[in-house]
Amino acid sequence: MPLGPVLVDGVPVEDATVPVADIAVQRGYGYFETIRSYRGVPFRLDQHLARLAVSAQRLGMPPPPLGDIAGWVLDRAGEGDCAVRVIVTGGVDADHPGGGSLTLVFAERLPTLPEAMRLLPVVAPWHPDGAWSGTTGAKTLSYAPNMEAKLAATVAGFDDAILIGRSGSVLEGPGASIAWIKGDRLAYPELELGVLDSITLSAVCQLAPPLGLRPTPGRYPLERMLEADEIMSLSTLRQVLPVVTVGDRLFDRGELTGRLLGAFEDLVVHERRVAGAV
Fold this sequence. Notes:
Elements: E1 2-8, E2 11-13, H1 23-27, E3 30-38, E4 41-42, H2 45-58, H3 66-77, E5 82-89, E6 103-108, E7 117-123, H4 144-155, E8 160-164, E9 177-182, E10 185-189, H5 199-207, E11 214-218, H6 222-225, E12 230-235, E13 239-246, E14 249-250, H7 255-274
Parallel strand pairs: 7-8, 7-13, 10-11
Antiparallel strand pairs: 1-2, 1-6, 3-4, 3-5, 5-6, 9-10, 9-12, 12-13, 13-14
């Protein structure tokens, strides 16, 4: 449930609705972002706004009003430690996406997360896996295949899935990125595979060199990832969570994963101070 009102094109609404004629409802057409607020300060809001603009462009929709959306996000971030969601619907004209679209901005409580993740590898034939299309890399509302993969994992007793491409490459989670440590390398799937350009992973890559780790994107089969010393799941809401199980393989939580999380938390505090927050 939202914390406080939903802003619909900037107007507070207690019981917000989306018209049934909107192609977001009829066809899952639209895009979104989720931004974490730390005591009222959104983390790397500019990067989330830039990704919104990319999603709009790849879906053939008009550029979003980023200045307005920034203000709306700051308003809803005032709820404190929370997740702020931005949803832009496709509108009511299927031939001209964006016509009559709505921008919804609202805050939600942070989810309860496990201390460590257990992941089930799931083959994802719907994923680009290096075969790009016009919408590759967009954060679209069409999440049914990803949600089904996560459901399959939870039914099997895991916390989430790790998607494996048709080529056998490790890709990402249904709603999170994946990275692992082997020796002095912080390895993760390259963007050319069509995985999300993760803001959290980008921050972690900045923090890795002082810890003696070299960020190393690439195309890695599952077998290579299973040789890792440590594995981590990363997202806006998860931050950096250790992975202790992949299928039937067990892993330690890992000292370096813990140090990366600590460095990330320090970065959040630093950026809050730069923003003028207490």
